[in-house]
């Protein structure tokens, strides 16, 4: 079994489905599947090669513009000149996101499509996703109960949290870095940060406003991504286009979308039992 290392992180890299049962069901460990999902039609239909940076992708607006009236959930993060950050979530036409992603880059305004159920996409775009039913059955019973589309300009970030069930995460455009922690280690780090902020409890499986801005966001990001703060207690996976990542039940994880600010970064995931 190959092991990918970054700093003091490692994540098993799976190039086939041999020993999946042992790795997933007995060891309960995350696994990366390089280029295993490169045949998802959306990868080639929704995006095209960047004109100057061939390693990056941009939106294929000639195709996506026809769906601009579709209503999608968006997250708007704005930073004022004095450093104050505001965060709000709302629904708007897809055309608003497309215009933002293809317009002039502004570092103080970020618009991100987050947690958009594939079932709410137009039927043509749903067909472009090609749900990997066979793969999900090999990772579990194949009972897919929810899905999400994520899309925006890098950098993007999703703070440390956990999901109620296993998760198959696939990169469609750009690159994402995922740091994961075992259930006990992730819970300990989450509660440590919350205690330092004078908070208690909290719903770590909700993408709430406190999680996405202010002191809690910055403290949690530092704890996860700064190795000196304890972030080294976990595994890391770097996902390129077509790569998949199995996130086991109960594992805590944080995600960063990286790459040129003029490029597109997009992912899709399926939760299953």
Automatic annotation (TrEMBL):
It comes from the Eukaryota. Residues 107-273 form the JmjC domain. Coiled coil: none annotated. InterPro entries: Cupin_8 (IPR041667), JmjC_dom (IPR003347). This is Clavaminate synthase-like protein. It comes from Setomelanomma holmii.
């Amino acid at each position: 079994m190959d092991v990918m290392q970054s700093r003091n992180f490692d994540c098993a890299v799976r190039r086939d489905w041999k020993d999946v049962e042992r790795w997933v069901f007995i060891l309960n460990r995350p696994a990366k599947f390089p280029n295993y999902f490169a045949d998802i039609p959306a990868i080639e239909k929704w995006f095209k090669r960047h004109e100057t940076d061939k390693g990056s992708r941009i939106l294929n607006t000639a195709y996506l513009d026809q769906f601009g009236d579709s209503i999608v959930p968006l997250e708007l993060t704005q930073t004022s000149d004095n450093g104050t950050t505001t965060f709000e979530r709302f629904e708007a036409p897809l055309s608003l996101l497309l215009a933002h992603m293809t317009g002039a880059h502004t570092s103080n305004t970020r618009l991100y499509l987050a947690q958009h159920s594939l079932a709410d996409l137009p039927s043509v775009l749903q067909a472009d996703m090609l749900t990997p039913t066979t793969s999900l059955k090999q990772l579990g019973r194949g009972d897919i109960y929810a899905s999400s589309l994520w899309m925006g300009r890098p950098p993007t970030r999703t703070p440390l949290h956990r999901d109620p069930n296993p998760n198959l995460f696939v990169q469609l455009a750009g690159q994402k870095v995922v740091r994961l922690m075992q259930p006990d280690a992730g819970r300990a780090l989450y509660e440590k940060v919350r205690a330092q902020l004078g908070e208690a409890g909290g719903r770590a499986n909700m993408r709430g406003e406190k999680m996405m801005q202010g002191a809690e966001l910055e403290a949690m990001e530092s704890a996860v991504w700064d190795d000196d703060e304890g972030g080294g207690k976990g595994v890391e996976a770097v996902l390129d286009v077509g790569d998949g990542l199995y996130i086991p039940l109960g594992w805590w994880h944080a995600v960063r979308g990286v790459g040129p600010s003029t490029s597109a970064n997009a992912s899709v995931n399926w939760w299953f039992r």
